[in-house]
Amino acid sequence: MHFDLALVINQTFSGLSTAMLYFIAAAGLSLVFGVMRLLNFAHGSFFMIGAYLAWQFSTWFGGGESGFWLAVLLASCSVALLAAIIESTVFQRLYGQSELIQLLFTYALVLLAGDAVKWIWGSQQLSLARPPSLAGSAIFGSITLPHYNLFLLAAGLGVAGLLWWMMQRTKLGMVVRACAQDREMMGLLGTHVKLVYLSVFAASAFLAGFAGALVAPTAAIVPGMDTEIIIPLFIVVVIGGLGSIWGAFLGAVIYGITLSFGILLVPRFSLFAVATLMVIILVIRPQGLVGEAASR
């Protein structure tokens, strides 16, 4: 098969736009683990609910440009609110528990969320149209760059920059990093640690819901999309290093590019290529490429 420069650029761009979606969702997963030491298998459920709510709100608002963006915003905020309720009533019981207990408990929530989605929206496939302003493509000779994919790339970079600024340049970020290092000491100093954890968990769910809402125009909205996304998200954070935001970014880029070219070169073994890459990285660096650090 002949590969020209245009094909390589198109495939690279496709991989990067996919990577940014994975990063936005994986950043929340990594943030929760880095700060709260919580393995949240239900993170994919927040992603799925974000996609369904984006479709629902868009339907209510009649679609269109403003309807789409308002739906994305409301879906993300609704997922964050739902997560805040769950954290304050359920997840607080998991802090300090073993990873096995955390995984089993959060997997139970996955099953509940899946049944709830089927009960509310049914099992049929749903779809959400792209906003009119991002429906076209930028064409440069043989290179085609869909406008929506360009937006996804910009959104991922924007989220990365915003998270870095919040964690490194704000008082809130300093408190979050301090709680990640020594929860008990921060409590003794008067910090409302439970409120910090609640805020971090809600922010994590917001990112998952945001990613789910953004993926809705590019993929089918169906029950089970939560379990399909959670494994790639764990691969991303493991490659980069659990607890590291920049690790999640690097892991997402590696995952997206590897998957994109894997589909092109060996379609039947594209996921195998990603898994093999993860194994190689973990053999060389068991802590991941960047390592565990909530403040990164």
Give the CA-based shape. Answer: globular
- Give the radius of gyration: 19 Å
Q: What is the terminal separation in angstroms?
A: 41 Å
Total helices: the number is: 11
How much beta, percentage-wise? under 5%
**Strand order, sheet with most strands:** 1-2
Q: Write down the secondary-structure element order.
A: HHHHEEHHHHHHH
Low-confidence stretches: none
Average pLDDT works out at: 87
Structural class: mainly alpha
List how many beta strands DSSP finds. Answer: 2
Can you give the helix content as a percent range? Answer: over 70%
The largest pleated sheet is described as:
2 strands, antiparallel
Please characterize this protein's 3D structure.
By secondary structure, this protein is an all-alpha fold. The protein has eleven helices and two strands. A two-stranded antiparallel sheet has the order 1-2. A hairpin with a 2-residue loop joins strand 1 and strand 2 (143-146). Helix 1 (5-36) packs antiparallel against helix 10 (245-265), helix 2 runs parallel beside helix 4 and helix 3 runs antiparallel to helix 8 (193-215). The N and C termini lie far apart (41 Å). The mean pLDDT is 87.
